[in-house]
Amino acid sequence: QHRCSHINSSICLNRLSSCVKNAVKALSTSNQHINKTQQCKMLPGLVSSQAQLCRTNLELMQTIVQAAREVKKTCQKTFADMRWNCSSIEAPKYLPDLERGTRESAFVYALSAAAISHTIARACTTGDLKLCTCGPIPGDTPEPGYRWGGCADNLHYGLLVGSKFSDAPMKMKKKSGSHANKLMHLHNSEVGRQVLKDALVMKCKCHGVSGSCSIRTCWRGLQDLKEIAMDLKAKYLSATKVVHRPMGTRKQLVPKDIDIRPVRENELVYLQSSPDFCTRNEKLGSVGTQERQCNKTSSGSDSCDLMCCGRGYNPYTEKVVERCHCKYHWCCYVTCKKCERTVERYVCK
Fold first, then answer.
1. How far apart are CA 69 and CA 115, in angstroms?
2. Edge-to-edge, what's the strand order for the sheet holding 313-329?
Protein backbone atom coordinates (compact mmCIF):
# COMPACT_ATOMS: atom_id res chain seq x y z
CA GLN A 1 0.00 0.00 0.00
CA HIS A 2 1.35 3.40 -0.98
CA ARG A 3 1.93 5.93 1.79
CA CYS A 4 2.29 9.64 1.10
CA SER A 5 5.66 11.08 2.03
CA HIS A 6 4.06 14.45 2.81
CA ILE A 7 0.77 16.33 2.65
CA ASN A 8 1.62 19.70 1.21
CA SER A 9 -0.03 22.15 -1.16
CA SER A 10 -0.30 19.42 -3.78
CA ILE A 11 -2.33 17.50 -1.15
CA CYS A 12 -0.74 14.17 -2.02
CA LEU A 13 -2.40 14.41 -5.44
CA ASN A 14 0.16 12.03 -6.88
CA ARG A 15 -1.15 9.27 -4.62
CA LEU A 16 -4.56 10.73 -4.09
CA SER A 17 -6.55 7.52 -4.00
CA SER A 18 -4.35 6.10 -1.23
CA CYS A 19 -4.31 9.33 0.78
CA VAL A 20 -8.06 9.85 0.50
CA LYS A 21 -8.68 6.24 1.45
CA ASN A 22 -6.54 6.56 4.59
CA ALA A 23 -7.94 9.97 5.47
CA VAL A 24 -11.56 8.96 5.03
CA LYS A 25 -10.96 5.81 7.06
CA ALA A 26 -9.56 7.90 9.90
CA LEU A 27 -12.22 10.58 9.68
CA SER A 28 -15.06 8.08 9.58
CA THR A 29 -14.50 7.57 13.30
CA SER A 30 -14.69 11.29 14.10
CA ASN A 31 -18.11 10.97 15.73
CA GLN A 32 -16.91 8.23 18.04
CA HIS A 33 -15.21 8.88 21.35
CA ILE A 34 -11.63 8.38 20.19
CA ASN A 35 -8.68 10.54 21.17
CA LYS A 36 -8.08 13.26 18.56
CA THR A 37 -4.32 12.81 18.78
CA GLN A 38 -4.69 9.16 17.79
CA GLN A 39 -6.99 10.04 14.89
CA CYS A 40 -4.54 12.56 13.49
CA LYS A 41 -1.73 10.01 13.76
CA MET A 42 -3.74 7.79 11.39
CA LEU A 43 -3.40 10.40 8.63
CA PRO A 44 -0.14 9.70 6.76
CA GLY A 45 2.61 12.25 6.29
CA LEU A 46 1.48 15.22 8.39
CA VAL A 47 4.30 17.49 9.55
CA SER A 48 4.14 18.76 13.14
CA SER A 49 2.27 22.02 12.45
CA GLN A 50 -0.26 20.21 10.24
CA ALA A 51 -0.82 17.60 12.96
CA GLN A 52 -1.45 20.42 15.43
CA LEU A 53 -4.10 21.90 13.10
CA CYS A 54 -5.64 18.46 12.83
CA ARG A 55 -5.85 18.06 16.61
CA THR A 56 -7.43 21.48 17.17
CA ASN A 57 -9.87 21.20 14.25
CA LEU A 58 -10.47 17.63 13.13
CA GLU A 59 -13.21 18.67 10.70
CA LEU A 60 -10.55 20.58 8.77
CA MET A 61 -9.02 17.33 7.52
CA GLN A 62 -12.25 16.28 5.83
CA THR A 63 -12.26 19.67 4.11
CA ILE A 64 -8.68 19.01 2.91
CA VAL A 65 -9.76 15.67 1.45
CA GLN A 66 -12.64 17.41 -0.33
CA ALA A 67 -10.22 20.01 -1.73
CA ALA A 68 -7.98 17.23 -3.08
CA ARG A 69 -10.89 15.71 -4.97
CA GLU A 70 -11.83 19.11 -6.38
CA VAL A 71 -8.27 19.76 -7.58
CA LYS A 72 -8.09 16.45 -9.42
CA LYS A 73 -11.47 16.94 -11.10
CA THR A 74 -10.92 20.61 -11.93
CA CYS A 75 -7.40 20.12 -13.27
CA GLN A 76 -8.53 17.36 -15.63
CA LYS A 77 -11.38 19.48 -17.00
CA THR A 78 -9.18 22.56 -17.40
CA PHE A 79 -6.48 20.69 -19.33
CA ALA A 80 -8.70 18.29 -21.28
CA ASP A 81 -7.63 20.00 -24.52
CA MET A 82 -3.88 19.84 -23.80
CA ARG A 83 -1.24 17.13 -24.23
CA TRP A 84 -0.62 17.24 -20.50
CA ASN A 85 -4.04 16.55 -19.01
CA CYS A 86 -3.17 16.18 -15.32
CA SER A 87 -2.29 12.52 -15.79
CA SER A 88 0.21 12.85 -12.92
CA ILE A 89 -2.67 13.37 -10.53
CA GLU A 90 -4.19 10.06 -11.63
CA ALA A 91 -0.94 8.14 -11.39
CA PRO A 92 -0.46 5.59 -8.61
CA LYS A 93 3.00 6.97 -7.96
CA TYR A 94 4.61 10.39 -8.01
CA LEU A 95 5.49 11.24 -11.61
CA PRO A 96 8.55 13.41 -12.30
CA ASP A 97 6.67 16.27 -13.99
CA LEU A 98 5.38 17.22 -10.53
CA GLU A 99 8.73 16.57 -8.80
CA ARG A 100 11.14 18.37 -11.08
CA GLY A 101 9.86 21.92 -10.71
CA THR A 102 8.14 22.11 -14.11
CA ARG A 103 5.39 24.51 -15.11
CA GLU A 104 2.90 21.65 -14.58
CA SER A 105 4.09 21.45 -10.99
CA ALA A 106 3.65 25.24 -10.74
CA PHE A 107 0.03 24.98 -11.83
CA VAL A 108 -0.81 22.08 -9.50
CA TYR A 109 0.70 23.79 -6.46
CA ALA A 110 -1.09 27.07 -7.25
CA LEU A 111 -4.44 25.38 -7.84
CA SER A 112 -4.05 23.20 -4.76
CA ALA A 113 -3.31 26.17 -2.50
CA ALA A 114 -6.29 28.05 -3.95
CA ALA A 115 -8.54 25.00 -3.60
CA ILE A 116 -7.68 24.43 0.08
CA SER A 117 -8.47 28.04 1.03
CA HIS A 118 -11.54 28.05 -1.27
CA THR A 119 -12.97 24.89 0.29
CA ILE A 120 -12.30 26.11 3.84
CA ALA A 121 -13.94 29.48 3.10
CA ARG A 122 -17.03 27.73 1.72
CA ALA A 123 -17.09 25.26 4.65
CA CYS A 124 -17.33 28.21 7.04
CA THR A 125 -20.42 29.39 5.15
CA THR A 126 -22.11 25.99 5.23
CA GLY A 127 -21.32 25.40 8.90
CA ASP A 128 -19.09 22.38 8.30
CA LEU A 129 -16.27 23.93 10.35
CA LYS A 130 -16.95 24.79 13.99
CA LEU A 131 -14.21 27.40 14.42
CA CYS A 132 -15.49 29.84 11.79
CA THR A 133 -18.72 31.44 10.58
CA CYS A 134 -19.83 33.68 7.72
CA GLY A 135 -17.46 36.29 6.40
CA PRO A 136 -17.69 39.88 7.72
CA ILE A 137 -20.18 42.39 6.32
CA PRO A 138 -18.33 44.90 4.09
CA GLY A 139 -17.78 48.34 5.60
CA ASP A 140 -18.70 50.26 2.45
CA THR A 141 -22.32 51.33 1.84
CA PRO A 142 -23.97 49.62 -1.14
CA GLU A 143 -25.79 51.51 -3.90
CA PRO A 144 -29.47 52.45 -3.48
CA GLY A 145 -31.66 49.36 -3.87
CA TYR A 146 -28.92 47.11 -2.51
CA ARG A 147 -28.26 45.96 1.06
CA TRP A 148 -25.65 43.76 2.67
CA GLY A 149 -26.92 40.45 4.04
CA GLY A 150 -26.75 36.73 3.47
CA CYS A 151 -23.74 34.64 4.48
CA ALA A 152 -20.49 35.66 2.82
CA ASP A 153 -17.71 33.17 2.11
CA ASN A 154 -15.12 33.57 4.88
CA LEU A 155 -12.13 34.19 2.63
CA HIS A 156 -10.01 35.66 5.46
CA TYR A 157 -10.26 32.47 7.52
CA GLY A 158 -9.79 30.29 4.43
CA LEU A 159 -6.57 32.08 3.50
CA LEU A 160 -5.27 32.10 7.08
CA VAL A 161 -5.78 28.41 7.80
CA GLY A 162 -5.24 27.23 4.23
CA SER A 163 -1.81 28.84 3.95
CA LYS A 164 -0.76 27.41 7.32
CA PHE A 165 -1.60 23.92 6.13
CA SER A 166 -0.39 24.23 2.52
CA ASP A 167 2.94 25.88 3.19
CA ALA A 168 3.96 24.01 6.35
CA PRO A 169 6.15 21.33 4.66
CA MET A 170 8.05 23.91 2.55
CA LYS A 171 8.85 26.00 5.63
CA MET A 172 10.41 23.12 7.56
CA LYS A 173 14.21 23.37 7.47
CA LYS A 174 14.70 19.64 7.93
CA LYS A 175 12.18 18.64 5.24
CA SER A 176 13.68 17.01 2.16
CA GLY A 177 13.81 18.84 -1.14
CA SER A 178 16.03 21.57 -2.58
CA HIS A 179 15.74 25.14 -1.34
CA ALA A 180 15.01 26.28 -4.90
CA ASN A 181 12.04 23.91 -5.18
CA LYS A 182 10.68 25.06 -1.81
CA LEU A 183 10.90 28.71 -2.87
CA MET A 184 9.18 27.86 -6.15
CA HIS A 185 6.33 26.00 -4.45
CA LEU A 186 5.83 28.75 -1.85
CA HIS A 187 5.74 31.41 -4.56
CA ASN A 188 3.29 29.52 -6.79
CA SER A 189 1.04 28.68 -3.84
CA GLU A 190 0.83 32.38 -3.02
CA VAL A 191 -0.04 33.14 -6.66
CA GLY A 192 -2.89 30.67 -6.38
CA ARG A 193 -4.18 32.40 -3.26
CA GLN A 194 -3.87 35.81 -4.93
CA VAL A 195 -6.06 34.62 -7.81
CA LEU A 196 -8.51 33.36 -5.19
CA LYS A 197 -8.64 36.84 -3.60
CA ASP A 198 -9.47 38.31 -7.00
CA ALA A 199 -12.30 35.79 -7.34
CA LEU A 200 -14.28 37.33 -4.47
CA VAL A 201 -17.28 39.01 -6.14
CA MET A 202 -20.59 40.51 -5.10
CA LYS A 203 -23.53 38.10 -5.31
CA CYS A 204 -27.13 39.21 -4.85
CA LYS A 205 -30.63 37.83 -4.36
CA CYS A 206 -33.70 39.72 -5.57
CA HIS A 207 -36.69 40.65 -3.40
CA GLY A 208 -39.93 42.33 -4.39
CA VAL A 209 -43.50 41.79 -5.49
CA SER A 210 -43.83 39.39 -8.46
CA GLY A 211 -40.08 39.27 -8.94
CA SER A 212 -39.76 43.02 -9.38
CA CYS A 213 -36.35 43.01 -7.69
CA SER A 214 -37.02 46.30 -5.94
CA ILE A 215 -34.37 45.44 -3.36
CA ARG A 216 -31.33 43.19 -3.60
CA THR A 217 -29.66 41.45 -0.66
CA CYS A 218 -25.96 41.05 -1.44
CA TRP A 219 -22.85 39.40 0.00
CA ARG A 220 -19.25 38.67 -0.98
CA GLY A 221 -18.93 35.22 -2.51
CA LEU A 222 -16.19 33.27 -4.27
CA GLN A 223 -16.38 32.22 -7.89
CA ASP A 224 -16.35 28.49 -8.62
CA LEU A 225 -12.97 26.76 -8.61
CA LYS A 226 -13.20 26.16 -12.37
CA GLU A 227 -13.06 29.94 -12.96
CA ILE A 228 -10.00 30.22 -10.75
CA ALA A 229 -8.40 27.29 -12.61
CA MET A 230 -8.90 29.04 -15.96
CA ASP A 231 -7.12 32.16 -14.65
CA LEU A 232 -4.27 29.97 -13.42
CA LYS A 233 -4.13 28.18 -16.77
CA ALA A 234 -3.47 31.52 -18.47
CA LYS A 235 -0.64 32.09 -15.99
CA TYR A 236 0.62 28.54 -16.68
CA LEU A 237 0.85 29.30 -20.40
CA SER A 238 2.85 32.49 -19.73
CA ALA A 239 4.89 31.12 -16.79
CA THR A 240 8.44 32.41 -16.29
CA LYS A 241 11.46 30.13 -16.11
CA VAL A 242 13.66 31.03 -13.16
CA VAL A 243 17.07 30.19 -11.71
CA HIS A 244 18.24 30.11 -8.11
CA ARG A 245 21.14 32.50 -7.72
CA PRO A 246 22.65 34.86 -5.11
CA MET A 247 20.89 38.22 -4.84
CA GLY A 248 22.45 40.34 -2.11
CA THR A 249 22.99 38.26 1.03
CA ARG A 250 20.91 35.24 0.02
CA LYS A 251 19.86 33.12 -2.93
CA GLN A 252 16.58 33.99 -4.63
CA LEU A 253 14.59 32.98 -7.69
CA VAL A 254 15.15 35.34 -10.63
CA PRO A 255 13.95 35.14 -14.26
CA LYS A 256 16.43 33.10 -16.29
CA ASP A 257 16.43 35.18 -19.46
CA ILE A 258 15.50 38.59 -18.03
CA ASP A 259 17.18 38.62 -14.63
CA ILE A 260 17.33 42.42 -14.59
CA ARG A 261 13.93 42.34 -12.87
CA PRO A 262 12.65 40.41 -9.86
CA VAL A 263 10.01 37.72 -10.10
CA ARG A 264 6.55 39.31 -10.20
CA GLU A 265 4.13 38.41 -7.43
CA ASN A 266 1.36 37.45 -9.88
CA GLU A 267 3.30 35.17 -12.25
CA LEU A 268 3.81 31.42 -12.01
CA VAL A 269 7.45 30.33 -12.09
CA TYR A 270 9.21 27.06 -12.89
CA LEU A 271 12.77 25.72 -12.70
CA GLN A 272 12.87 22.88 -15.23
CA SER A 273 11.59 22.65 -18.81
CA SER A 274 8.78 20.18 -19.45
CA PRO A 275 8.82 17.28 -21.90
CA ASP A 276 6.59 17.65 -24.97
CA PHE A 277 4.30 14.89 -23.56
CA CYS A 278 4.02 13.34 -27.05
CA THR A 279 5.32 9.89 -26.21
CA ARG A 280 5.45 7.77 -23.07
CA ASN A 281 8.53 8.43 -20.95
CA GLU A 282 8.19 7.42 -17.31
CA LYS A 283 11.45 9.07 -16.32
CA LEU A 284 10.08 12.44 -17.48
CA GLY A 285 6.55 11.81 -16.29
CA SER A 286 5.00 11.69 -19.77
CA VAL A 287 2.19 9.22 -20.54
CA GLY A 288 2.04 10.24 -24.21
CA THR A 289 -0.99 11.12 -26.35
CA GLN A 290 -1.62 7.78 -28.06
CA GLU A 291 -5.38 7.01 -28.13
CA ARG A 292 -6.20 10.55 -26.97
CA GLN A 293 -9.24 12.07 -28.66
CA CYS A 294 -8.53 15.06 -30.92
CA ASN A 295 -10.54 17.67 -32.81
CA LYS A 296 -10.07 17.50 -36.59
CA THR A 297 -11.55 20.95 -37.23
CA SER A 298 -9.73 22.79 -34.44
CA SER A 299 -6.61 24.89 -34.86
CA GLY A 300 -5.88 25.00 -31.12
CA SER A 301 -4.08 22.70 -28.72
CA ASP A 302 -6.76 20.01 -29.11
CA SER A 303 -6.28 19.81 -32.89
CA CYS A 304 -5.34 16.43 -34.30
CA ASP A 305 -2.08 17.84 -35.63
CA LEU A 306 -0.89 19.23 -32.29
CA MET A 307 -2.44 16.63 -29.99
CA CYS A 308 -1.08 13.74 -32.05
CA CYS A 309 2.34 15.36 -32.54
CA GLY A 310 2.23 14.77 -36.29
CA ARG A 311 1.77 10.98 -35.95
CA GLY A 312 -1.65 11.03 -37.56
CA TYR A 313 -5.01 9.88 -36.22
CA ASN A 314 -7.65 7.23 -36.70
CA PRO A 315 -11.36 7.93 -37.23
CA TYR A 316 -14.20 6.03 -35.58
CA THR A 317 -17.95 6.45 -35.41
CA GLU A 318 -20.13 6.73 -32.34
CA LYS A 319 -23.90 6.85 -31.86
CA VAL A 320 -25.13 9.74 -29.75
CA VAL A 321 -28.62 10.08 -28.23
CA GLU A 322 -29.82 13.66 -27.87
CA ARG A 323 -32.97 15.54 -26.91
CA CYS A 324 -34.74 16.92 -29.97
CA HIS A 325 -38.04 18.35 -31.24
CA CYS A 326 -38.61 20.08 -27.91
CA LYS A 327 -41.96 21.79 -27.38
CA TYR A 328 -42.97 24.33 -24.77
CA HIS A 329 -46.39 23.83 -23.14
CA TRP A 330 -48.29 26.60 -21.37
CA CYS A 331 -47.74 26.72 -18.41
CA CYS A 332 -44.96 25.72 -17.78
CA TYR A 333 -43.11 22.65 -18.97
CA VAL A 334 -41.18 21.35 -21.96
CA THR A 335 -41.42 17.96 -23.65
CA CYS A 336 -38.76 16.53 -25.93
CA LYS A 337 -38.18 13.46 -28.04
CA LYS A 338 -34.95 11.46 -28.19
CA CYS A 339 -33.03 11.41 -31.45
CA GLU A 340 -30.06 9.24 -32.36
CA ARG A 341 -27.32 10.37 -34.71
CA THR A 342 -23.94 9.03 -35.74
CA VAL A 343 -20.89 11.23 -35.22
CA GLU A 344 -17.33 10.76 -36.40
CA ARG A 345 -14.55 11.11 -33.85
CA TYR A 346 -10.77 10.88 -34.05
CA VAL A 347 -8.04 9.44 -31.83
CA CYS A 348 -4.27 9.82 -32.08
CA LYS A 349 -2.18 7.00 -33.51
1. 10
2. 293-294, 333-348, 313-329
Within this chain, do residues 254 and 144 fall inside the same structural domain, yes or no? yes
CATH code for position 338: 3.30.2460.20
How many domains does the chain divide into? 2
pLDDT in tens, 305-318: 999 999 999 999 99
Which amino acid appears at position 264 of this protein?
Answer: R
Contact between 171 and 191 (Cβ < 8 Å):
no
194 and 333 co-located in one domain: no
319: containing domain: 293-348
The answer to whether 148 and 219 have CB atoms below 8 angstroms apart is yes
Cβ atoms of residues 247 and 259 within 8 Å: no
Q: Say if residue 178 is in the same domain as residue 316.
A: no
pLDDT in tens, 187-223: 999 999 999 999 999 999 888 776 678 888 999 999 9
Tell me which DSSP letter residue 264 carries: P
The Cβ of residue 32 has, within 10 Å, a number of other Cβ atoms equal to 7
**What is the CA angle 145-147-150, rounded to 5?**
135
Residue 204: half-sphere exposure toward Cβ, Cα within 13 Å: 14
